[in-house]
Amino acid sequence: MEFDTGRSRAVLLTLRQRWSLILSALLIVIGLALGVNLRDDSIGRSTTYTNVEAGITALYPARWLLDETGDYVLRVRDMSQRGFNTVIEVITLPVGPDTSERNLLDSLTLRRAQTLIDYAVLGYDNYILPDETAAVSMSYSFVSRDTSPLLQGASTIVAGVDILTFSRGQAVIVSFRADADIFQQELRTLHRFIDDLEY
Fold it and tell me: Cα torsion for 97, 173, 167, 123, to the nearest 10°?
């Protein structure tokens, strides 16, 4: 009898161990799924920006830094990145009936060529906004030098694109700049921004 009891205890422990392994694996899978979901939610979270004077409403990534102090309506930067921070900037300019897209883009080019290192326009293209409005895009690149004394001499090639359209007597220019190595993957942030932009 004692032998049978010992054997049944051994079998029970083995069954308990099997169930505990199954439950542990299930809890790990559920925990990973929740973690990925929370991460995606925090990355995809947006903050609403409204400027009544400029007539602009936009959604930008919640973890990005907002700046309204320059000669632009808004500038948001991803401060979590090393090196050059990805930037989205919105500029509005009053325009007359004879103002052309090319004149405005050439004016931007002249201004940037004076302040940015190795600034070069890579090309122009037509761009269709989500509401089917026609726009013009200009691609460019420049070199950014890190201002940190610890990284003195380090430089980054930055890729950028401007998207220009006219609305209610003003030109709206959305500028996007990112490290050239991650520019293509960062473009999805620009597309989400433009999809939600109202002007």
Answer: 60
- Could you give the angle at the alpha carbon of 159 between the alpha carbons of 122 and 126, nearest 5°? 50
pLDDT tens digits for 79-118?
988 889 999 999 999 998 888 999 999 999 999 999 999 9
- The closest alpha carbon to 91, from 51, 46, 142, belongs to 51
Evaluate whether 84 touches 144 at the Cβ level (below 8 Å): yes
Q: Check: CB of residue 86 under 8 Å from CB of residue 186.
A: yes
DSSP per residue over 57-118, as a string?
Answer: EEEEETTSEEE-SSSSSEEEE-TTSSSSPPEEEEEEEE--TT--HHHHHHHHHHHHHHHSEE
